Amino acid sequence: MLNLPDKIFVRIILGLGIILLLNACEGHPRGVLSQREMTGVLTDLHKLDGCLYEKGYQYGHLNDKAPYYKFVLNKHGITEAQFDSSLVFYTKNPKQFEEIYTKVITQLTDFDNEVKSNKYHPVDSAKLAIIKVNLWKKAIRYNFNKDSVRTKLNFEIIDSTLWFGDVYTLRFLQRITPEDSCTNQYVVMRINYVNGKTDSARVESHNDSLLRRYTFHMPVLRKLKIKSISGELLGSSKFKGTFNASLDSISLTREYNALKLDSLHKVVQKADSVLNIKKSKLKPDTLQKSKVLQKQPDKKKLLKPFRQIEKL
Predict the structure, then answer these.
(1) What pLDDT shows up at residue 9?
(2) Which of 53, 89, 196, 302 is most exposed, with minimal Cβ within 10 Å?
(3) What is the rounded CA–CA span in Å between residue 235 and residue 231?
(4) What was the pLDDT predicted at 34?
C-alpha cells in the first residue's frame, strides 16, 4: 500500500507523462505554433487578405499592408519570427499542414455562409443605392490566330461621369498558346487623371495554353478628376511574330453609390479650387503689373522678374 505522499508523487509523475505524451503526439518542436494556434492565425490572415483585396491592395502596397498583418500576429500573441518558424516547420511536414488547411477552409466556408446570410452586415437601404454599370463596349470575345493582325488589345474609356469614390473591376478569361511568339506578356489596367497622374495595376501573363481568369479590382482613392480608364489585355515587350491567343467574358464594371455622388463631387471641386488658388499666387495680377510699369518704365528691367515667375 502506498502512503499519501507516495500517491501524490505518482499522480504528479502520471500527469507529467500525459503532458509529454500529448506534446509528442502533436509532433512539433518548442517555439512552433500548435496546429490549433496555426489554424487560427491562418484563418485570420486569409480574412485579412480578402478585406485588403476589396480595398484595392491586391497588387503591391507592401508597406501599406504590413501594419494589418502585424495586427493579426499581435492579436494571437505571437511574433513574426514565431510565425515564420512555424510556417517553415509545417511546410516540411505536409501531412500536418494539410490537416491545418482542412480546418482553415472549413472555418472560412462557415464564415462565408454567415456573411451571405447577413449575420454581420444586415441589408440596409443605403446598400440599395449602390449601382453597377458595365463600361465595356467592345466585343467580349476574341480569338486570334497566326493570320490575325498583331494587337495588344488596348482600350480606353473616356467618360466625364467617372468620379472619385468609384470602384472599377475588369474581368476576363485568357489563353495564350506556346505557338504565340510574344515575350514578357502582361496585362495592365490604368486610372488616368486629368492632371497627368496615373494609378495602375499590372500582372504577368503566360503562353502555356492554360485558361486563366484575371480580375482587376481598383477603387479610386485620389480626390482628382478622372480623364479615362485604359489598359492592355495582351501586352508584351515583343510586338511581332506569330499570334495565337483567345479572350472571353470580358467586362469592366463601374460601382458607385448614387446617394454619395453629390458629396463626392463637392470634395473633388474643393480640391480643384485649392489647386487653382495655389496656381494663381504664382501669377502677378494686372494691378501689380501697372504699378511696376509706373515705377520702372525700362522694358529690359521689366522682363527679369516675369522670367523668374515663368520658371516656377
Answers:
(1) 45
(2) 196
(3) 9
(4) 92
Helix (H, G, I), strand (E, B) or coil at 205: coil
Q: How many CB atoms lie within 10 A of CB 149?
A: 6
The rounded distance, in Å, linking the Cα atoms of 157 and 252 is 10
pLDDT at position 4 is: 44
Distance of CA 244 to the CA centre of its chain: 30
Q: What is the dihedral of CA 80, 86, 90, 91, to 10 degrees?
A: 40
**Which CATH number fits the domain that encloses residue 158?**
2.60.120.1310
Block means of pLDDT (10 residues each) for the chain, 312 residues, are 47 50 56 91 89 69 79 91 91 91 92 81 59 92 93 92 89 94 93 94 92 92 91 88 93 83 56 55 46 44 36 32
φ, ψ at 140 (rounded to 5°): -95, 0
Contact 52, 31 (CB under 8 A): no
C-beta contacts of 305-309 below 8 A and 24+ residues apart: 309/282, 309/283, 309/284
What's the chain's length in residues? Answer: 312
Q: Name the one residue in this structure whose C-alpha cell is 509528442.
A: 24
Do 220 and 191 contact (CB within 8 A), yes or no?
Answer: yes
Number of H helices, E strands in the chain: 8, 9
pTM of the model: 0.48
Residue 296, pLDDT score: 45
Distance of alpha carbon 195 from alpha carbon 223, whole angstroms: 11
Long-range own/partner contacts, residues 200-206 (CB < 8 A, 24 or more apart): 201/58, 201/59, 202/59, 203/59, 205/174, 205/176, 205/234, 206/176
94 is written with which cell numbers? 505536409
Last residue of a domain, one of 226, 257, 288: 257
Q: What is the tally of structural domains in the chain?
A: 2
